[in-house]
Amino acid sequence: MNNDKLRNTVKKLRHHKYSGVDEIVGIEPKNRYGKISKKLVKENTALYVDTNSQKEDEEIISSIKTLESLRAFMSEYKKCELHKSATNMVFSDGNPKSKIMLIGEAPGHDEDIQGKPFVGRSGKLLDKMLNAIELSRDKVYIANIIPWRPPNNRRPTDDEINMCLPMIKKHIEIINPSAILLLGSTATYALIKNSEGITKIRGKWFDIEINRKKYPMLPTFHPAFLLRQPAQKKFSWEDLKNLKSRVKN
Questions:
Q1: Strand arrangement of the beta sheet that strand 206-210 belongs to
Q2: In 3-state terms, what secondary structure has residue 22?
Q3: Residue among 97, 108, 109 at smallest CA distance from 144
Q4: Cα 229 to Cα 39: distance, rounded to the nearest angstrom
Q5: What does pTM read for this prediction?
Q6: Cβ partners under 8 Å of residue 30, min gap 6
Q7: How far apart are CA 16 and CA 225, in angstroms?
Q8: Long-range contacts at 52-55 (CB < 8 A, ≥ 24 apart)
């Protein structure tokens, strides 16, 4: 079997996988993809992943319906160079049925080791912030724009953000929250594409449309920033109350 035919076969198989199809049922057995062994598919999957276009990736992402399928896709996604230096792909934490979704920038050292978002010093502060409005990690859903830790905790590049943007948008679509809290300037810029800094737009609601549905988003300061600038916590407190009020209404 030549590489083009193999690539098309693997593409169809992966498309079904990420769409949530785990078996093909029929009266009579039928080989729908020609004579191809599981071993051959596994050995040549890298060929498909490496040569797939961005448009093809986005088509696959658009067909994904479940968190499990999205996690599987992101776990196998190798085009973002950040995965090479990361220990873990950090997917999410919290309650996937929550009406509130929190989105941060990218994993740090502790998150990279534990495979969960916001578990270091910033995470401890975030837990206190949630507790202040009678919420907890079990009552919200937490994800990041970038699922892999950038080296030395540097800010993700625009290319890295744009590469991961379809995945976080699909994440939002699956969770379907009533309100989204954007933690920090990177998460805010990635989804809102604001020209103003986080200081000027924090506390203001913005709508972003994903697959013909609008999601309200509220930018606020990142907990890491608040650790460096404790005087700014009073503004984050106002944002948290704003978020809680929005979800209650």
A1: 93-94, 141-144, 100-104, 179-183, 213-220, 206-210
A2: coil
A3: 108
A4: 54
A5: 0.81
A6: 24
A7: 42
A8: 52/11
Q: Cα-flanking dihedrals φ and ψ of residue 223, to 5°? A: -55, -35
Which of 139, 140, 142 shows the shortest CA–CA distance to 122? Answer: 142
Q: Tell me the backbone φ, ψ of residue 195, rounded to 5 degrees.
A: -95, -15
Tokens 């950090």 locate to: 90
**Planar angle of CA 172, 95, 159, nearest 5 degrees:** 35
The torsion angle over the Cα atoms of residues 163, 49, 118 and 98, rounded to 10 degrees, is: 90
Centre a 10 Å sphere on the Cβ of residue 14 and count the other Cβ atoms it contains.
19
198: DSSP letter: H
- According to DSSP, residue 220 is labeled E
Domains present along the chain, CATH in parentheses: 3-74 (no CATH), 85-248 (3.40.470.10)
Answer whether residue 100 shows pLDDT above 60: yes
Cα separations in angstroms, 122 against 15, 32, 100, 107, 222? 37, 50, 19, 11, 8
In contact, 107 and 87? CB cutoff 8 Å: no
The predicted model gives 6-28 an average pLDDT of 59
Summary mean pLDDT of the chain: 87
Phi-psi region of 152 (alpha: psi -120 to 50; beta: other; left: phi over 0): left
CA distance linking residue 133 with residue 242, whole number of Å: 10
Is 105 a residue whose pLDDT tops 70? yes
Q: Hunting for tokens 């990361």 — which residue is that? A: 86
CB 30 within 8 A of CB 130: no
